[in-house]
Amino acid sequence: MNRLSAFRGALLPVGLLIVWEIASRAGLFSAVVLPPPSAVAARWVSSLVPALPYDPATQSYTAWLFSGELPHDAVASLSRVIAGFAIGVGLALPVGLLMGTSDKLYSLVNPLLQILRPIPPIAYIPLAIVWFGLGNPPALFLIALGTFFPVLVNTVAGVRQVDSIYVRAARNLGANSWTMFRRVILPAASPFVLAGMRIGIGTAFIVVIVAEMIAVSDGLGYRILEAREYMWSDKIIGGMLTIGILGLVIDGAMSRLNDHLLRWHRGLER
C-alpha cells in the first residue's frame, strides 16, 4: 500500500516534468526564461561534483567530496539554520515556560509580544545590518528571530492549556511545584512545544535564504541571487529545488522526532 501511494504521488511531478521538457524542446518559451528539466539537472549535477580531481596530498577525501559549489552552499545554509534555530529555541523555551506558569508575567509581557509577533523577520533586515554588519551575525539574528516567536507562542499556549484535572490530581497526591512542573505541566505541554519547533525550523529555513541574499557571500540564497545577475535560470531553479529537498528532509526529520518523543501521547509507548 505504501509503494502504491508513493507511485501515485510521483505521477503528477513526473508528468509535469515530461510536459515541461517537451514544451521547452518545442520552443514554446525561451530557454533563458525557463530552461528544460534536463538542462536544470545537468547544471545541478555540475554544481554537485567537485571541480578539481582528488589530491590526497592537499585535502582529505571528505573535504574533497564536499568541495563542490552546491554541497558547500548547502552545508553553509544548514549550519546557519541549525545555529539560529538553537539560539531561538534556547531563548523561547524558558520565556514561554515562565509566561505560561506565571499569570503576572504573562499579563506584563503578552502585550509587547502581540505587537512584535506580526512583524516578519524580513522587516528586520535593515536593522540587523546596522546592528551586526555583514556576515553570519545578522543572518543568525534573523533566523533566531524567525524561530523565536513560533516556539514561544506554542509553548505559552501549551502550558496555559494543561488540563486542570491533571493539576488537581497531582496536588492531591502531594506533588510540590517542581514535581508539578516536571511531571505534569512540561509533558502535557510538549506536543505544543514540538509543534512550535517544527514551525520554527520551517520559518528558519525561509529566513536563511533571504538573509543569505543580503548579508553573506555563500549559501543557497547567495548563489541564487548570483545566478540572477547572470540570467542563469537553470542554476536558479536548481538552487530552488535544492532548498525544497533540504526543507523536505528537515521537516521529515522533525516529524519523526515528534513521533518518537510523543509516543506516550499517542498511546504507543510500551
From TrEMBL:
Key words of the record: Cell membrane, Membrane, Transmembrane, Transmembrane helix, Transport
Subcellular location: Cell membrane
A GO cellular-component term linked to this record: plasma membrane
Membrane topology label: Multi-pass membrane protein
Transmembrane segments: 81-100, 112-134, 140-159, 192-216, 236-254
Record InterPro entries: MetI-like (IPR000515), MetI-like_sf (IPR035906)
GO BP annotations listed: alkanesulfonate transmembrane transport
Domain ABC transmembrane type-1: 74-258
Function as written in the Swiss-Prot or TrEMBL entry: Probably part of an ABC transporter complex. Probably responsible for the translocation of the substrate across the membrane.
Family: Belongs to the binding-protein-dependent transport system permease family.
Protein name in UniProt: ABC transporter permease
Organism in which the protein naturally occurs: Methylobacterium terricola
Lineage: Bacteria, Pseudomonadati, Pseudomonadota, Alphaproteobacteria, Hyphomicrobiales
